[in-house]
Amino acid sequence: MRILLSALLVAVGISPASAQGDIPAPASKLSRAEAVNGYMQPAIPRPEQEAAAAQKLAAFEERTGRKPNILLFIIDDMGWGDPGVYGGGGMIGAATPEIDRLAQEGLMLTSTYAQYTCTPTRAAVYTGRLPARTGLIRPILAGDDVKTNPWEGELSVAGLLSDAGYHTMLVGKWHVGEGEGMRPHDVGFDEFYGFYRAQKEYTQEVYPQRYPDLVLDEDKLERYRGIGADRDLVYGLKDGTTEVVEVIDSMEKMAEGDVMLREYTIERLGELAGGDKPFFLSHSFMKVHADNFPAEAFVGASASKYPFRDSVVEVDAHIGAIVARLEELGELENTFIFVTSDNGPQMDSWPDSGYTPFRGAKGTTWEGGVRVPGIAYWKGMIEPGRRSDGLFDLMDLFNTSLTLGGVSTDALPDDRYYDGIDQTSFLLLDDGKSRREHVYNWLGDQLAAMRMREYKAHLLVSLAQEKFLWIDMATVVPTGLAPWLFNLYVDPKEEYPVGHRMNAWTASLGAELKAHGATFRKFPPKDLGL
Length: 530
Ligand code: CA
Known about the structure:
By secondary structure, this protein is of the alpha/beta class.
């Protein structure tokens, strides 16, 4: 096993070419997934379910005369356990009635997976491809010397839907490159209103209690700004128009960031509702990424009174306000909504951190780092009260959004590998089942773990050297002779490995990991020179 896994790790990144149209056989008997071509992630075939979903969508279009709107709410760093329906909410001093209601009146997914940090997840959602393939494994920052713009040649879901007649918008956080050619309005979004970076990158210039060595030192501040780090709320259009709406030069202004984003979305929804195009909107919150300062109206709004919890209450209220606006406009029944978070809680910033019942945190591929809330809501189209533990990777939003928008993934170019799976039928049918068999958890450019059914096999594990410091004081180590294998149904916290002594599938899981690694030989990842 050791040799097999080492061979896999060496294999990742090496590039002998082979015929790309070959249809690979399933890697093991454990897999229900089947490949339809050589360049897309194999999925569990459910032909009847897919036909029924296509019929349901066609009936919607016949009834309304148009394609559905698509609205993604991407919350930053919220833990799986933060919303009330996932076991948090009022129990941890921050009630989330609006998120809970969408879950209760829609489909609540309990096994939704993100990447281990912000940038990789957003890149994966928008491209449908693993960050290790695109090179978008971390934000491209001002001052970074990159050989290649990772977005060059990539197709974004926003661009594909825009070409298909959608108005595509990003309101809020981007964090997938801030140089020209990498901004949202350069890579497919028709319209951008938001921030290039994460909240902490704005607060660190204005929060003297936490960053006195920068904020109170004029020389360092000047040097820091010399890197080119912006501190702007930006408005951008596909035609190149790029304007600064507001300079974030105080904690008070950052505190109101999500209020400004909500107001913009609500205003634009009013204008778009009367228009002739459906919209694709990614409303991506700045909160609840550290450093959290709740907006003035939400200070002390949570039972806990902690800034993080107040910020959870704030985000929940903004979601409620935007959904209410859609309903007022008569667009709620025309809009597919998905609520999620881009990674697990960042425990390093505790108590400015979310909650997860699982092991690990943001920055790791333990369940605590990558398992996130996932709620699909569509009034009249998704049966209220549904629950599923079927696997869903946030990359599936790429394929699913394309299908909802009438863009066939069969027409995508075959010169690259796609990791997302079309989950339209899983989400829309009353008894829909997931088509995903595997979730791969990457740490930067290294394959660290895989979830398959209820099993999770680790090749590399993050070990915090101090409680909570999963990013700032952790080590990443390879596992030994066998992968660390957990059965998440009997051990959701990944504490008691079942290993080869208690599990018949160790060799099969190894073969599945190896097959995944082989896709990187066939389609070599980009080298950005980072
Ligand atoms: Ca994040």
